Amino acid sequence: xxxxxxxxxxxxxxxxxxxxLEVPRFKKGGFLxxxxxxxxxxxxxxxxxxxxxxxxxxxRFYGPIQTAAGVGLRxxxxxxxxxxxxxxxxxxxxxxxxxxxxxxxxxxGLVAFHPMNLFFxxxxxxxxxxxxxxxxxxxxxxIGVSGPPALGMDGLIVQWGFAVDYFLNRYFGFxxxxxxxxxxxxxxxxxxxxxxxxxxxxxxxxxxNQTSPGGTWWHTGIAxxxxxxx
Length: 230
Known about the structure:
Layout: H1 2-20, E1 30-44, H2 46-52, H3 55-62, E2 68-79, E3 83-94, E4 102-113, E5 130-145, E6 151-167, E7 172-189, H4 192-195, E8 207-208, E9 215-228
Antiparallel strand pairs: 1-2, 1-9, 2-3, 3-4, 4-5, 5-6, 6-7, 7-8, 7-9
Helix pairs in contact: 2-3
């Protein structure tokens, strides 16, 4: 009897658990809210900055820059399980409570492609809560270190990234993500605070570079994904 009872448990419990698992209806689309946390890893083009400015000045900017914790927020709308349109924000900072603090922020509009839907064209719904996407984005980035004087640069960035999502039910899941911000900023500020006063402080205007300083800024980690919709 005991053997029969254990056999029934082994056979029935997984089946019940599988029946209760309710994955998102990916083909219906929906809103996605992602709360991201991880490491932000910079790779500033130091040689390019040295070539455009004096090395002592450039090194005062890129010297304090370091890998730090980063957070992110992504809001997007998924269309029929194939494409998402939205916005992505990333922020990071180091020594935030010290005089020599610094940080960076990036905001882009993006379009993401979800190729897994192609593998389930003949099924009414996807049988598993797994999803994958890759995206490209375009937007604004800012990087700065405190002074005196405060140094920084801002301007255009191009973002590329990918993410793997696993949904525990229709509305909640976890994600592993990685995204890279390609720095295309064309302005370097010798005195950030003075340049952004109204009116700007004399002699603190930004230098407009003929070539972008370049470099990349990676952000990778895990996220909580909230899904709203069918």
